[in-house]
Sequence to fold (183 residues):
Amino acid sequence: MTLDEILEARRSVRGYASQPVKEEGIKAIFESARVAPSACNSQTWRFIAVTDRALIQKITQDGMLPVIRNAWIATAPLVIVGCAQLDILANRVGSLVTGIEYYQIDLGIAMEHMVLKATELGLGTCWIGWFNEKKIKEILEIPKTIKVLALLTVGYPKDTDVNLVKKRKPVEEIFYRDKWKGR
Ligand SMILES: Cc1cc2nc3c(=O)[nH]c(=O)nc-3n(C[C@H](O)[C@H](O)[C@H](O)COP(=O)(O)O)c2cc1C
Fold:
């Protein structure tokens, strides 16, 4: 697949077939994140690949926030938990000076690498931001010093027959030339 084809094919998948993700697939997805850029090359990201069915069930049942329960997560054969190591000096100093939380950017880039790699492998993904961090840390025994920033479900899409039209703002609304032109 070309990059354009991968970008076009990627969409949020919220229902998975029971087929597991092969170990080579998990490895390839992790490798795609490992080579991502990060501020000062500090590589603050850490990931947990959860494949244990009981743990995925617990994440779904106890790890979500109210209202949007994301119950379909239970169908995913793999949930990648995206974490950041907060006590890496170069990253903290940089963030204190600029006010930019680099570890969040680092993780976002690395996880999107994973999303694109998974798409290339024919896998579907969905970012999950609506979760209870405290509960996720309890379930997966993640230390206090670690920040959990995102979950990513991965698996073969169950709903292959979906509308791929992406609802997005027009280019003029989000890209300006030379100077700021928005509100
Ligand atoms: C940071 C982030 C958090 C998200 N959290 C959730 C979530 O908790 N539940 C969910 O169903 N989708 C979640 N999504 C997926 C978005 O709803 C989805 O990307 C958006 O609607 C665009 O649709 P598409 O991904 O199919 O193009 C999240 C996406 C991002 C980037």
Remarks:
- Residues 11 and 125 are 7 Å apart (CA to CA).
- The chain has a mean pLDDT of 94.
- The radius of gyration is 17 Å.
